[in-house]
Amino acid sequence: MRYRNLLLFLVLAAVWGSAFVAIKAGLDLGFPPVLFAAVRYDVAGVLMLAYAAFVTDRPLPRGRAEWATVAVGATFLIAGYHSLLFVGEGFPEVTSAAAAVVVSLSPVLTTAFARVLLPDERLGVVGLVGMVLGLVGVAVIDPPDPTNLLGNLGLLLVFGAALAFAFGSVLTRRIDADLPIETMEAWSMVGGALLMHGLSAGLGESPAAMLAAVEAAPVDAIGSLAYLSLAASALGFLVYFDLLDRLGPVEINLVSYVAPVFAALVGFLLLSEVIDANTVAGFLVIVVGFVLVKREAIRAEWRRYARSTAESAD
Asked: Which residues form the EamA domain (predicted)?
């Protein structure tokens, strides 16, 4: 069982890490970023609705609180996060690995938002240091240049995506609706896709540009979209739900810190992206911040793991 969980964990990290490369590849082909994200979740949302109908006895949200949870998920976890991420990755200086590293800050930001918005949680001095280290890690990856603020815009948008995801995660916990996670994810994907289609139209993105990209390089274009919709979204969330049930939220959060490694490797192999020292250093600083913020949960998880290992040895 332990090796099965480890294998699935690595599969999830590989799939979600390489998703950053698939996004970059589609954007390089000329896909309009927000429309690209919307179409991805058109496909993934339908698949997840079918999955929710199959595995739960409540495939449709009920009541104000449950629909409010879906609205938060659609707005922040899907539309906000992916719109900012896809636009940010469209900047040439933002590599797949750099985007993945900045997104790995999400667990730290989630804890920080929780300390503010959830009254029963507090952030101590060590936790504050960890949060600050996480923010420093982002600055290390792309040092601010006061003379060229637009030069930092791409990574700032990716950071905004991490903020949107963290804020949405905490809001769903604050609402505390008794809604199966599969149903919540499925309807959030559908609602988020609709919001992104509206935003895409408002930005003046042209569906013709997406069709032109497909016609110019059909294998690469369809492959990028299919990978994001089927592998990163549908398959990825199936594995995520399975591991969340088996490992719990602390261990599954660690996927965020393995995914950048796969993003770097796949980006180097497929897109010839070079990983600079700043990206590596920023990643290490963010990991230290995560450990400080999550130190109590990590300590409890380690004790549980040690106890289960000792019991199995007996």
From this structure: 6-141, 153-293
pLDDT in tens, 209-254: 999 999 999 999 999 999 999 999 888 888 887 777 676 665 676 7
Instruction: Indicate the Cα dihedral angle 2, 8, 193, 184, nearest 10°.
Output: -20
Residue 177 in tokens: 């609706």
- Name the H helices within the chain: 2-29, 33-55, 63-72, 81-89, 96-103, 106-117, 125-141, 153-175, 181-202, 207-216, 218-226, 236-247, 249-253, 255-271, 277-293, 295-313
From residue 252, give the alpha-carbon distance in Å to each of 105, 128, 257.
14, 22, 10
Rounded CA gap, 182 and 188, in Å? 10
Give the range of the structural domain holding residue 227, as residue numbers without chain letter: 2-313
Domain count, the chain: 1
The 10s digit of each residue's pLDDT in 156-186 is 999 999 999 989 988 888 887 888 888 999 9
- Among residues 76, 279, 261, which one has the least CA distance to residue 184? 76
CA 126 to mean position of chain CA atoms: 25
Question: Hey, what amino acid is at 304?
Answer: R
pTM summary value: 0.84
Q: Give buried/exposed letters for 51-86 (b at 16+ CB in 10 A, else e).
A: bbeeeeeebebeeeebbbbbbbbbbbbbbbbbbbbb
Tokens of 249: 């939220």
The DSSP symbol for 120 reads: T
For residue 110, what pLDDT is reported?
Answer: 79
CA distances from 143 to 99, 148, 155 (A): 15, 11, 10
111, 124 contact by CB (below 8 A): no
